[in-house]
Amino acid sequence: MRVTLFGASGLLGQELVHELRGDELRGNELSGDELGAAQLTALSSKDADLRDRARVRDVIRDSRPDWILLAAAYTDVDGCESNRDLAFAVNCEGAANVAQAARETGSRLVFLSTDYVFDGTKASPYQTTDPRNPTSVYGESKARAEERLLEILPDVCIARTSWLFGHGGKCFPATILKLAATRPEISVVNDQRGSPTFTRDLAAALVRLCRASARGILHVTNSGNCTWFEFATEIVRASGIQTKVKPVTTAEFPRPARRPAYSVLSPDSLHAHNIQMPDWQDALRRYLASAHSAASVVG
Ligand SMILES: NC(=O)c1ccc[n+]([C@@H]2O[C@H](COP(=O)([O-])OP(=O)(O)OC[C@H]3O[C@@H](n4cnc5c(N)ncnc54)[C@H](OP(=O)(O)O)[C@@H]3O)[C@@H](O)[C@H]2O)c1
What we know:
Blueprint: E1 2-6, H1 11-21, E2 39-43, H2 53-63, E3 67-70, H3 77-82, H4 84-105, E4 108-114, H5 137-152, E5 157-161, E6 164-165, H6 172-182, E7 185-189, E8 193-194, E9 197-198, H7 199-211, E10 216-219, E11 226-227, H8 228-238, E12 244-248, H9 268-271, H10 280-298
Parallel strand pairs: 1-2, 1-3, 3-4, 4-5, 5-10, 6-9, 7-12
Antiparallel strand pairs: 8-11
The structure holds NADP nicotinamide-adenine-dinucleotide phosphate.
NADP nicotinamide-adenine-dinucleotide phosphate binds at residues 6-13, 44-46, 49-51, 71-75, 90, 94, 112, 114, 161-164, 169.
């Protein structure tokens, strides 16, 4: 399988590189190591800016991929509120540039999308068929991208995910651990509910979806759900730290972008491909264990 990956330097992209290269035993039941490594072209924004249509077309023509994985995006959710043009240029027009090039080369495309395409007013898991109604510029740019890509490439695979954490960049557990190391108490919002997702599990599931020739909209997150407060409490508990975690409301901690209060994504579309994701607590344990072993190698 020949794969071209946009966003290879990002949180998810780095795990996709490991997964596609078939690196070491991943300690992950989703990885199919019997499937062998892919021929990978891994790109950061310096190699190809999504906004540069000619460059995007050239790298795709040169690499002639069976699959393109589009994990590149402008992901600063609050930054998008004050940089609307940039958000749409990268997340929507940039994605459309990739889809046009994919159509020209006959490549399949997986586009990473987000739970923020929903408004969060439901009280039960969002189905792939539920209407989009984003409440932030970031969510709008992704929702519009989904519509554009489905027009350009009807067999596109759109993988919506949520609350990513992993190695190699900023993420919620790393931030909580840093804060908890120096403070006796931290305040975390308890009125936003979603599914934390380990980039390692997501990368493995995405590669399986490519191998299964998946198309259409899919929801790909770790199983189970929690609030950010419950997530933080579990991070602190599992790490054996004494810091107290205090629940607060979103209203007490206003941010530029409005987040959905409830954005749990139904796993039904994934189950249809026989993929069962580990629960988020299990994923968190593996993340913390691998963070410790990486630290002890360095130390
Ligand atoms: N993080 C989450 O919680 C979350 C939740 C739901 C969905 N998602 C989606 O999942 C995907 C991966 O997210 P992530 O957290 O791994 O992202 P990330 O860590 O912020 O990485 C973003 C990647 O996109 C690249 N990039 C940014 N602007 C670009 C441009 N103009 N042209 C080309 N490449 C560009 C970056 O390259 P450089 O390093 O060169 O800048 C980097 O490789 C994204 O599509 C995101 O929207 C993320």
